[in-house]
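Example 3.2
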Amino acid sequence: MGTRIKLYEYNTDYLYRRTLDNLDKLEVDNSDHHYWLSIQTDDPEQISNQLLDYFDWHPLMIVEDEESNLRSKFQEFKNYLSLLLVLTRMDRNQDIINESIQFILYDNLLITIEPEGHGIFSWVISQLHAKSVINEHGTAMLMYYLIDAVMESYMEIFEHIDYYLDELEEEILDGDDQDSIEKINHINKYLLSLKKGLWPMRTAIGSLTRGKHAMIDEDTQKYFHDVYEDMSQLNEMVELYRGLCSNLYDSHLARVNNRMNEIMQTLTVIATIFTPLTFLAGVYGMNFVEFPEIRWEFGYAMFWIICIVVALVLIWYFKRKKWF
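Structure, written as tokens:
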């Protein structure tokens, strides 16, 4: 854990990457090259404070370390703009955590402050090394591709949720659903956290599509409309999967109720069969002296024959009525 600083210098047919020990070694000129300063850290607030002094940023640029206060937002200043995106995900312990990715865009410099070892931008980095179409454009277009990579990471999250809900549905249908309610509540809680994070993110990205920005030309701004549409789709997917969770919850309760009804039906049938048998046993268990049947030679056997016949008749009748 710690901080890793990498500087990518590129243009159409050129890419040079170097690792910096500290910001004092940062050199950015005003040539036709573009620069991406990628900072991966486990303490974004500390890095923001260092960058604030180095680049003379506005104090509102500081990223708060408290997860509960993290919120996606867009800010524009005189010669740079800032976009803070808050990512909601689950860790290995199934705990919900919030992480921030901050983009600071200058005319020919893009700074990103990212979580340590997240790997979301791997594809974009590989495209830079391959000298693809990304190299042909400036840092605003690079920022678009990086934000698009964030959207793709959310798509992967929803693919996992979809797979998880399919498995949960099969468990419920197969009857192996003892802890289904707990699982449904957990995934529903995660979806609610996603919803709380995606709405501010949609608003922040929407700010890039409205008005004019000095660091983003009109052609590049059109690409951010595509990201904004992706954000709208993600918000719709949250509502879709929350609806699926609600349906699974109803299916689980319906299955539990059906199972309870089956148990009650079985117990009712058993009780109904034994009701006439209990009556017969009660009659012949009375302490009267004169009981003609008691003196019969086959009275005891006859009693059992009558009980068995009555029980079989009731069972046949219930079967015919399809009561069990």
